[in-house]
Amino acid sequence: MTFELRAIGHVESVLRAGEDVPKQADEGAPDAWLALDPALAAACADLAAGDELVVVTWLHEADRSTQVVHPRSDPTRPPTGVFSTRSPARPNPLGLHTVRVLAVHGTRVHVDALEAFDGTPVVDLKPVLTARR
Amino acid sequence: MTFELRAIGHVESVLRAGEDVPKQADEGAPDAWLALDPALAAACADLAAGDELVVVTWLHEADRSTQVVHPRSDPTRPPTGVFSTRSPARPNPLGLHTVRVLAVHGTRVHVDALEAFDGTPVVDLKPVLTARR
């Protein structure tokens, strides 16, 4: 069963290649812009500075056939099934990134530390839930 | 720009229709099974009871053309752009669900409170990050 995912925009970042991307945002990722489709202005209308968002990206350069990876953070760890890792290599290379909104200019959204490189497609934005479980 | 998302499995739940689904897991969602593709056994190999996971679903019955919704939780609130809500109605109807793994039997994963109904396609599983930001 397959579904058609459509880019809602893309990341604008000083990060220029997959190799430059910190594995997690707290490892030094820069701020970035989400350049969203102007046709989605109504969907973006309530985004505001200070919001905490989950940005869902499509890691379009990832290898979708990989099922097992060697964790980059500790090469001595054994190979690990991708569903137990945040590796971009996985059957559906979706990335989840928790960011804070710094500014909103129409459908351009400035966010803090984002571990995704320039040109990465964005496929969804969701508010972080305050009471999670 | 579009991408092909492939189901990695589906939800098995006593919840039978969209109308039955609690809006968030802490509003009384039942436990459920993730019936994953046996061809992805290697990707699942390190899942274990006790793991906290983000289950990414494809809310296949959602209206993808909706940009503004009236929050169900409080009908007096004004219409809100979907990127500021967790509504299933959105350009790409991805669902994010934080669950705890109760048991793993091969590629069948038993999880606690999951707010998704029977048959919902699953598209990714990721570990919850312990040190988020």
Written account of the structure:
- Chain A is mainly β and 133 residues long.
- Chain A has a single domain (9-127), classed as YaeB-like (Elongation Factor Tu (Ef-tu), domain 3).
- Chain A contains one helix and nine strands; from the N terminus they run βββαββββββ.
- The first copy, chain A, is globular, with a radius of gyration of 15 Å.
- At the A-B interface, strand 1, helix 1, strand 4, strand 6 and strand 7 of A face strand 1, helix 1, strand 4, strand 6 and strand 7 of B.
- Strand 1 (2-6) of chain A pairs antiparallel with strand 1 (2-6) of chain B.
* Strands in their spatial order, largest beta sheet of chain A: 2-3-8-7-4-9
Helix-and-strand structural type of chain A: mainly beta
Give the CA-CA distance, first to last residue of chain A: 30 Å
Structural Rg of chain A: 15 Å
Average predicted local confidence, pLDDT of chain A: 90
- Poorly predicted ranges of chain A: none
Order of helices and strands of chain A: EEEHEEEEEE
Q: Give the amount of beta strand of chain A, in percent.
A: 35-45%
Shape of chain A: globular
Number of strands of chain A: 9
Which CATH class of chain A applies here? Mainly Beta
**Assembly state here?**
homodimer
Number of domains of chain A: 1
The CATH homology group name of chain A: YaeB-like
Largest interface: A-B, 50 and 50 residues
Assign a percent range to the helix content of chain A: under 10%
In the CATH hierarchy, the architecture of chain A is: Beta Barrel
CATH third-level topology of chain A: Elongation Factor Tu (Ef-tu), domain 3
